[in-house]
Amino acid sequence: MSDILIRKSNLIDIPLIEQLYKKVASVEGGLARTESEITREYVEHFVSKSIVNGIQFVATDKASNTIVGDIHCFGIGIKAFAHVIGDLTVAVHPDFQGQGIGKMLFEEVLEEVREMRPHILRVELIARESNTRALRFYESLGFEQEGRLKKRIKSVVGGFEDDIAMAWHRP
Ligand SMILES: CC(C)(COP(=O)(O)OP(=O)(O)OC[C@H]1O[C@@H](n2cnc3c(N)ncnc32)[C@H](O)[C@@H]1OP(=O)(O)O)[C@@H](O)C(=O)NCCC(=O)NCCS
Questions:
Q1: In this structure, is residue 55 part of a structural domain?
Q2: At residue 72, does pLDDT exceed 70?
Q3: pTM above threshold 0.85
Q4: 130 CB less than 6 Å from ligand 1?
Q5: Is residue 59 situated within a structural domain?
Q6: For residue 104, which atom of ligand 1 is closest to its CA?
């Protein structure tokens, strides 16, 4: 794990973040987007939103100098929701999953919220019901299941499945 560095992202990371998301999206059942739906425009959109009104960290593999993990979330941009940060997405390269990188990325975000963004009271995310490992992982970080959005997302085995709305609340 000493070969992994967690740091804030910036605009020059966009091409490597795009490569990462394409790779993660090539494995079904995690991200909502398919590989072909990971476009430069999509990545530019979330990197810029995270810089202006959000939080983003990337995990870099020092040996290959590539980005192997990303977490980002951003605000809604309306005063009534200024205490909320959401649209959270996390992705770790398939070859690097299960090594604690996802956990480190989340811990950075939650520490930033706790220490630097006292106005944020709620961190929101949505995960598909079949992604049980991810759901358990989020619960272990303090996220609660708050709701079930029935048949919201297309299932990889056919038909549709529920999306689970989760939130972390400032203690
Ligand atoms: C979910 C994900 C971000 C976790 O990152 P990670 O670096 O693999 O996770 P960590 O090694 O820090 O392990 C933390 C927990 O994540 C979960 N996890 C590990 N690998 C996972 C995988 N391939 N898919 C889903 N969850 C996984 C486990 O619950 C693990 O806890 P455990 O060690 O008690 O089993 C990562 O697996 C991933 O990018 N998956 C594909 C994309 C995705 O599902 N994104 C989330 C959409 S809501």
A1: yes
A2: yes
A3: yes
A4: no
A5: yes
A6: 12
